[in-house]
Amino acid sequence: MYYEDLADLLNRDASAYAYYYGLAPSIQEMLQSRPIGSLDEMRRFVDDYHFSQRPDAF
C-alpha cells in the first residue's frame, strides 16, 4: 500500500512506525525531507544511505 506522505505512513502502518523509530535520529531527519509513501521506499532509502556511507575499498 502507498500512503500520501511519511506522517500518513507512520500513522497507518505499525511496521513502518516500528522501523522508523528504530532508526538513528539523523536518519529520521533525512526521511522527513523525502517523499516517502511506503515501508519499502523507506527501507530502500536507508539501505542506499548506509551503502553510500561505506568507505571505498582500497
Descriptive account of the structure:
With 58 residues, the chain is an all-alpha fold. It has one domain. Helices cover 66% and strands 0% of the residues. It is built from four helices and no strands. Helix 1 (6-12) crosses helix 2 (14-21). The N and C termini lie far apart (41 Å).
Briefly say what this structure is.
This protein has 58 residues and is mostly helical. It contains 4 helices and no strands.
Strand tally: 0
The number of distinct structural domains comes to 1
What is the share of helical residues?
Answer: 55-70%
- SS summary, helix count: 4
Mean pLDDT: 94
Could you give the order of the helices and strands?
HHHH
Low-confidence stretches: none
Q: What general outline do the C-alpha atoms trace? A: elongated
Separation of the first and last Cα atoms: 41 Å
Radius of gyration: 12 Å
Largest sheet: none
Strand content: under 5%
Structural class: mainly alpha
Write out key terms for the chains shown.
4 helices, mainly alpha, 0% strand
List the SSEs and their pairings.
Blueprint: H1 6-12, H2 14-21, H3 25-32, H4 39-53
